[in-house]
Amino acid sequence: MRLALAASLALALGLASAAQAQVKLEIKDREGTLTTRSTSKAHQVLSIAGMDIETSSSVATTTTSATGKPEADGTVRVKETISDIKASLALPGDMKVSFDSDKPDAKSDNADLQGLIDLWRSMKGITFTAVVGPDHKVRDVEGNFDAIVAKAQGQFADAAKERLSKEAMKREAVEGRDVLPDKPVNKGDRWQRTRVMHIGAGQTLSLEMYYQYAGTVEKDGKTLDKIDSFAGGVTTPSIPTPHCRSNCSSPN
Question: Residue 247: which region, alpha, beta or left (left: phi > 0; alpha: psi -120 to 50)?
């Protein structure tokens, strides 16, 4: 969901004057509906005892954002709904699974993979509302998060609780809006943000994200500001090695 929010910013930025050498990029919460599609792909290689274990995944989501009228205090509510999802996962041992919400009856003989299919299936229709203040920053998120998490079963239940909790959704909504530079920029200027991804079991990935102002583009008769983004370094904290704390003895 964070990627869908970030992608929508390119269509929500204020117009930039071509006559200016620099532009100030700002979010404008305009009443109306916007549909965005984002794709996230990952390829992981884990080396254990000299053996490489590879996994790869791809998740494409279509999200509808409906921005309401400003309230008396300037607060705006932005309702986000996942309307479509297509996903695939390749695991060691030539284990593969895929899902398309347009064909929701997908099945797997593997119970664990079926749990993943069920989780993907439950994501279609997920809705939450970001409460945005007059400063265009997320103050809160609203939604029936307990009902969303309850749909996850099996070994993926804990991951769903962590990924789809209110705290996680708010964190992603906040980060999704924190992509613009802090000062005016010229075409080609770059800036950086650090993103922390929670990947389950208490583990995280820290991504160094780089953004670059790519100038303006014409779309549907409108002049829009374009921002390119790419991931730089990725780090993960090492998993502590278990060690004996007390009453330790060696086997005979």
Answer: left
Determine, yes or no, domain membership for 223: no
Structure tokens at 184: 């005016």
Does some domain include residue 16? Answer: yes
How far is residue 114's CA from residue 32's CA, in Å, rounded to a whole number?
A: 37
**Which residues have CB under 8 Å from 167's CB, separation 6+?**
none
- The pLDDT, as a whole number, for residue 92 is 84
Our CA dihedral for 197, 198, 203, 204, rounded to 10 degrees, sits at 20
Q: Which domain holds residue 52?
A: 2-184
Instruction: Look at residue 169 and tell me if it is in a domain.
Output: yes
Look at the chain and report how many structural domains it folds into: 1
Q: Cβ distance 177 to 209 under 8 Å?
A: no
DSSP line for 170-213: HHHHHHHHTTS-SS-B-TT-EEEEEEEEEEETTEEEEEEEEEEE
Q: Cα(64)–Cα(75) distance, rounded to whole angstroms?
A: 20
What is the rounded end-to-end Cα distance, in angstroms, of the chain? Answer: 54
In a domain, 224, yes or no: no
pLDDT in tens, 186-208: 999 999 988 777 665 566 777 78
Rounded to whole angstroms, the Cα distance separating 232 from 207 reads 7
Dihedral sign of CA atoms 220, 18, 214, 80 in order:
negative
- Alpha helix stretches (DSSP H) within the chain: 2-8, 111-123, 145-150, 157-163, 166-177
The sign of the CA dihedral 13, 26, 9, 137 is: negative
pTM: 0.68
pLDDT of residue 6: 38
